[in-house]
TrEMBL record:
Residues 24-153 form the Tripartite ATP-independent periplasmic transporters DctQ component domain. InterPro entries: DctQ, TRAP_DctQ. Keywords: Cell inner membrane, Cell membrane, Membrane, Transmembrane, Transmembrane helix, Transport. This is TRAP transporter small permease protein. The chain crosses the membrane at residues 12-36, 48-66, 87-108, 128-149. One of its GO terms (biological process) is C4-dicarboxylate transport. Part of the tripartite ATP-independent periplasmic (TRAP) transport system. The complex comprises the extracytoplasmic solute receptor protein and the two transmembrane proteins. It is a multi-pass membrane protein. It comes from Polaromonas naphthalenivorans (strain CJ2). The keyword Ligase does not apply. It is found in: Cell inner membrane. It holds the Pfam family DctQ.
Amino acid sequence: MIKKLIDGYCQLISYLIAAALAVMVVLVFGNVFMRYAFDSGFILSEELSRWLFVWLTFLGAIVAVRDNGHLGTDMLVGRLGPLGKKVCMGLSLVLMLFCLWLLFKGSYDQTVINWETTSAVMEVSMSWFYASGMVFSVLSAPILLGNLWRLLSGQIDDEHLLLMQESEDAPHGDAGKSH
């Protein structure tokens, strides 16, 4: 049930990422065309593209957390036995949860500090910009907590004790595949 919920919100996030990327492409190339053809451009193109890029990055990182798609190295962990791998996985999950807390706290503080500050061109509260870190933290935490629960309850077999992929392990066509 929880896995279906996480898969569902990751699918929704993938659609949001695609939409943000499409809007960015239209804004940037439209602005380039307008500058060359008509010697003018979209005023908010650069700022909105920057905001979308930040949100796209954080949303994409959520999907990468779910797919264990962040690059890493297993030079040390790969040499350990099953118990050592489990300890390292548990430790890494706890450390990632701590990092999520730090990111959430920092993003929250920046959101509060910038609540009254507006962006230069769009005149939107800068808190929306900094809220991307909070959204990433809140939506990534259940994934990591689920992995930690699966580890502690013995639901992870020895083959799946590594939480990352080597760059050679993921062919380019595998990017959207769920694991």
